[in-house]
Amino acid sequence: MDQPSERKPLRADAARNVDKIITAARQCFREQGPEVPLQTIAATAGVGPATLFRNFSDKEQLVLAALSRQLRLHVDPVAEDALAGMDAAVGLIRIIDAVMQVASEDANLLGAVAGRRGLLIGITGGLIDSIETLLERGQGQGSLRRDITIEDMIRLIAMLIGAVDTMEPGSRAWERPVALIEDAIRTERPSRPLPAQSDIPGVTFGQAVS
After folding, report:
1. Crossing angle of helices 88-105/175-185, nearest 10°?
2. Residue pair 17/57 in contact by the 8 Å Cβ criterion
3. Distance between alpha carbon 47 and the CA centroid of its chain, in Å?
4. 159: three-class secondary structure by DSSP
5. Is 115 helix (H, G, I), strand (E, B) or coil?
6. pLDDT tens digits, residue range 150-206?
7. Could you tell me the pTM of the whole model?
8. What distance in Å separates the CA atoms of residue 196 and residue 76, rounded to the nearest whole number?
């Protein structure tokens, strides 16, 4: 997957430091929330602040790198399998499931860069191409509506990612809205029932949409 910004190849020791910083960032954001200081992340990674800032000029750049790595690790393999599969509609939904799993597990990362914008910056190049290929293939197979465009799909995914704000971090409450999206884009309603409704402790409908 394309990265948010192109980087020159790093020396082995520098690459290890970047990996440690990104791993520490995910841990710190998950445990302490989106406002965690960069100095805390550097200390958790076992590097000095200068090393962190030499590789990431600000928090947003670090967050986008962390999100991009998660997409590369957990979504790209799903996309490759989907492209090799016979049923394009099933493959497309599996990609969306994988994206939503990343969004849910790293909800505090999303919160640090205004959510949808942060993750969507990471969904570039190859992954969007994969989604478009599967959409067109599914339309040719007759399983996906012919009037849906890739722009529609990107907006639908953005809507789903935005819904993570209404869920407990790490929960699978996103499965129900994904199922509703699948129902909307298929030519025939899926035979499986909707996933069970997940309760969201402490969040009311008014809070979710405010």
Report:
1. 150
2. no
3. 27
4. helix
5. coil
6. 999 999 998 998 888 888 878 899 999 999 999 999 999 887 788 887 644 444 344
7. 0.81
8. 28
